[in-house]
Amino acid sequence: MTSPAPSPSRGAPAPGLGRPIVDARGLWKRYGPLAVLKGVDLSVAERELVFIIGPSGSGKSTLLRCLNRLEEPDDGSIHVDGIELLSPRTDINAARRRIGMVFQSFNLYPHMTARQNVMLALRKVLRQDRAQAEAVAARALERVGLAERMDHFPAQLSGGQQQRVAIARAIALEPRVMLFDEPTSALDPELVGGVLNVMRELRQDGMTMVVVSHEMAFARAAADRVVFMADGEKLEEGPPAQIFGEPRHERTRAFIRQIDRH
Amino acid sequence: MEEFAFAFLNGDILREAWPILWQGFLYTLALAAITVPLGLVGGVVLALLSTSGPRAIRLAAAGWTDLFRAIPPLVLLVFLYAGLPFAGIDVGAWGAVAIGFFLNTGAYYGEVLRAGIESVPRGQMEAARSTGLSRGQALRYVILPQAVRNVLPDLVSNTLEVVKLTSIASVVALPELLFQARQAQNATYNATPIVAAAVAYFLLLWPLVRLISRLENKALAGR
């Protein structure tokens, strides 16, 4: 290992986990005079599930979107699976194959069936032939429990099913890390469970995951580490028991009290 | 009544004029087959530049579009055909028509397609890019198919206007339907060929008009 051992303030991955897959340092992002990220570090180890929580406007989604460069940080460095993401020499399209992303509003392609949604990048990015892409897409959709809905269009699927197709679209590319941007926020309550189950299974299969979400029960049960952000800064982080049980920071305490009331 | 039929619905005149009218009809079809694809290509290019280029290029594309929507196509065509030779550039009748329609109808198709592209939510491009597709691939496979679908009635409607507009090629002496009808009228001192041309345009374009109505009703129902 060439990178220096991260200091606790950098957010050391929980012990017993693998090498860092994501290593972001000193990320700054400004919109005009407003700084949304103020020098944030985030390191995520192989097979780790990191939860990012915080009030709206805290910069948590921006941080997540920097990790596959949907958002361009103004300063800092990001390594994902050893690739220097912000280097101008980096082929960002090749790098993004290793970084799956799931969005709050699913963003399925409405003019394609579930299977075609999954197949598009397999065909055009991985250059698989039709038969191979069909088989890989079918397996990915089976994994999220939608084998029977493969030929449905997004409009014919429930929100929960659409989100599971979106997860299948990402995992079909066999990413090294999955980013979830509020994956259940747009769902009716009765549909949330199905999506969380799929995420739980992904975790059991050893997927590295970074999740921005308000699903606190899920965070308590499944996360290795919880990061609390406010005003563009990482205020504290630690195992869920610590963050939820005995938060050090007053703002963390206030935030968790407020969330738990709902 | 008899005089009216003699002047406008004269069977003998029609039989006499039929061969050159038919030839004109074929020219009109050929003009449509050239101008519609040219306009579409120009429109796609303009729409892409005005939605996804750097700011300076977006502004230039918008200015270009404004310019060629504001210049009457007939004026543009006459300038290309009869004005450019003064600069030593002779593009000929076909060249003038091809360039003129590329500029004019390209601007109109460009506006329609730009609206279509802007109607596709931002998240579509982000989702596509997050799976490793390049910007071009995302436009081709994800954005443009949805954009075209969203403005299909307007695209077909614009196409209808383009086909009608091909009649202005008569002023640069291309023997299309209107030009031939005028020739026949002058040769026979009878208006029947003009009536026949109008009927021919109607028969050619009426299916397109019906299609637009159906697409518009479908779009309303889909809402």
Automatic annotation (TrEMBL), chain A:
Major location category of this protein: membrane
Membrane association type: Peripheral membrane protein
Compartments where found: Cell membrane
Keywords from the named record: Amino-acid transport, ATP-binding, Cell membrane, Membrane, Nucleotide-binding, Transport
UniProt feature coiled coil, ranges: none
Entry's Gene Ontology molecular function annotations: ABC-type amino acid transporter activity; ATP binding; ATP hydrolysis activity
Superkingdom, natural source: Bacteria
Presence of the UniProt keyword Lipid metabolism in the record: no
Family the entry assigns: Belongs to the ABC transporter superfamily.
Protein name as it appears in the record: Ectoine/hydroxyectoine ABC transporter ATP-binding protein EhuA
Organism: Teichococcus rhizosphaerae
TrEMBL record, chain B:
Membrane-spanning intervals of the chain: 20-49, 70-103, 187-209
One of the protein's GO biological processes: amino acid transport
GO CC list: ATP-binding cassette (ABC) transporter complex
Membrane-topology descriptor: Multi-pass membrane protein
The keyword DNA damage appears for this protein: no
Family matches, as SUPFAM superfamilies: MetI-like
PROSITE patterns (alphabetical): ABC_TM1
Coiled-coil blocks: none
Alphabetized UniProt keyword annotations: Amino-acid transport, Cell membrane, Membrane, Transmembrane, Transmembrane helix, Transport
GO MF terms, alphabetically ordered: transmembrane transporter activity
Localization annotation: Cell inner membrane; Cell membrane
Domain ABC transmembrane type-1: from-to ranges: 25-213
One Pfam family from the record: BPD_transp_1
Role of this protein: Part of the binding-protein-dependent transport system for glutamine; probably responsible for the translocation of the substrate across the membrane.
Record-stated family: Belongs to the binding-protein-dependent transport system permease family. HisMQ subfamily.
Record-given protein name: Polar amino acid ABC transporter permease
Native source species: Teichococcus rhizosphaerae
